Amino acid sequence: MKAISIFIIFLSIVACRSTKESFTSNEEKPAIAIGDNSQNTLDWNGTYSGTMPCADCEGIKTLITLNSDLTCKVSRIYMGESNNVFTDSGTFSWDETKSKITLQLENDDKKLNQYLVGENVLIKLDVNGKLIESNLSEMYQLSKIENNSNLTNKHWTLFELNGELIDTSRDPHLILHTEENRVTGNGGCNSFSGNYWLEENSKIIFSQLLSTKKYCLDVDYENRFMNVLQETNNYSLDGDTLTFYNRELIPLAKLVYNP
To answer: Does the pLDDT of residue 50 top 70, yes or no?
Structure first.
């Protein structure tokens, strides 16, 4: 009987130890789950703007648009050289951590187009996918600009110029096309086209504006309209009214949305 009792106690100890080891093993083993990351927690799709450092120019104004279908568009202006806008389109992919992206553009080395995706910011990385450490590190950040769908691809009719109401019967207007940042319009007599550039804090810049050369005696505001576009630096939207301002935030022109 004594031997049987000892054997029963031994089995109980082994069973308890096995249960404890099993519990400890299960407790220490991490659960398989998808954690939070930039791709699934941030509102990353949209347009980012900033000025990147440049070795042989004053800086590179940069716009990057990321779309939810993993396509992208990059526009650049090389400051001090010209106001030409260089645009490239392509796709992008996420890395395994879902926190970095690589732009795959037709004319660029993808190693030069790696970015860390943060809250309303893209941070350019070096060729090894690391943060760039220099005294210009802040210039490698692009800030997300507000959704401009209420501004672009719409027919805006000019009705006030330098505080003066003008005749709208000739339909002086402009359209800001999202495709390649092109602006087209009419000054009341001549058609014009060029480029525009949107930045954070409601900044807008027009460049490379060209127009036809028809002569119209009954339109006295066309040249002033074109000059105002050259001076424009900011804008505001109030319902269906678009206002352009100069650098001192003096209103220059008002336009109304004309569906």
So the answer is: yes
